[in-house]
Design brief:
Length: 372
Amino acid sequence: MLLDSAMSFAGKWSTSFGPMVLTEERGGRVRGTYGRDVAEHPIDGTATGDEYRFNYTEPQERGIGRFKLKRYGHFSGDYLAEGNYRALPWQGWRGHDGLWDTHLGRLRFVQETPGRVTGFAEYDAAARIEGEVDGARLTFKVEAGNFSGRGVLDLDPTGYALTGEWFEPQQPPRPLSGQRILPRPGLTWLVVAEAYWQRALDDNEFAFGDMLRELFARLPRVQVRHRYYHDETSLLHWCRQLLFLPEPAVLMLAGHGEPNGLTVNGKIIPLGRILESLKFADGIMLVHFSSCLVGQDSERALIAAPFPVSGYKTSVDWAMSAFTEFIYLDMILEKGLAPAAAAKQLVSLVRFAGNEEIEGSPYRPAGFCFFG
């Protein structure tokens, strides 16, 4: 049986490697072509539910890959060329879905159904976009505190550009255009959002993000960003910024933890709000809680996240977590392992990271946990 047309791979896509057109046949077979300019490279495989496994062929390369349909307007996945050991990202967007560079700054459009778009604006975390799609035309409005406006954008036939107009109350119409922002090949982000550990003036200066920045500065394809948060608003601000990064990203949340979230200045930042703020950050490879106890009683919430999540079930020692995470992140960012594969390797390479009591060890088991 063919998939519901709203959740099918069939159709026209704008992808990391040029436009793609796919057709779906009975039995789940999906095939088509992709390529920039006039190139048309064949792609052929089988879709099962929301997953498509395929083979692709180019004049100088061939390989295999996998796409995961995350919503009507977006798939994420990867491909592995013959002779390579590291799988690389391959993303696709349908219609207006995706990240756009416009005169209003970066806009994230989310198209969960063929006729409706929601979205977010980088310049204002409070901004919300609601729109309707009619063919190639998106008509939308923006509400953000004291600011409001509406726009009309037409998608060009390639799927990589928008042109239209912007309207504000008591102002003449202005031209509005945008270009689709594509991931830069080979680039990965490590974003560290950290609470201040110091509670008094005589506390020494230290920060885990500083250590991670120095460790991964040796990798030219990894960009490290270290930001501090001091309450729920500031943490969610930095989490939402991941909606506007087109490349794959690992998010490290460092701070004091409780079973139901992170704690800062005596207040709990609920786990559910953190995960909800990241829902449409399509590039997230992994969210890791570098904090105590978060994995203890929150398995249901962590499993439901639309991306892999890891953390600890115990009150973990600082040095233990630092050593554990150096190895864990290095396997992902430098060795090229998928987060699930790195998590599986971790508890055998770093024994105290798991649940096993080690005789004579000054370190108690950290209770590392991974939710795929």
